[in-house]
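Allow me, if you will, to draw on your knowledge of protein folds for a short while. The matter concerns a single protein, recorded as an amino acid sequence and a row of backbone structure tokens. Kindly check, if you would, that the fold set down in the tokens agrees with what the sequence suggests. You will find the record immediately after this paragraph.
***
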Amino acid sequence: MSHDWKHRGVRVVHGHELDPNVPQTQGMSRAAAINFARVGAEKIWAGTVSILPNAKTGAHHHGPVESVIYVVKGRARMRWGERLEFIAEAGPGDFIWVPPFVPHQEMNGSADEPLECVLLRSGQEPVVVNLDIPVAERPEEVFWVDNIHPAPEKGR
């Protein structure tokens, strides 16, 4: 069996070659790096997300698609829930998983530097459902607590 590895093998998409012509949400800038149109990917989508200092997106979800956000630079503040009533923060080197259909909002937790992230999705569908929902006044901070991640100390 013969493979055309030269044309159907590894592909490199350089940072200056990203495609900004993807569905957007107010307050952020998305750009595609890996998708079907650019490299022939069939099961994943990857790109970048940038949010200016002190900016936030509108509430939205991505339908049946799972998303992973890797924070490269800055402070990511995520709100989620029916009224965006839950909140958590992530910094450089942290990963954020967003399950299907979860209403969420990304915010830049820094007043001084842009938030820069890498985004990976479980499918090719560019699903972005922008929502107009009432927002909770005081979101509840949520910590990942299990045998490996202890509960934070009181007062932190």
Q: What stands out?
A: The CA atoms of residues 60 and 99 lie 12 Å apart. The helical segments are 5-8, 36-39.
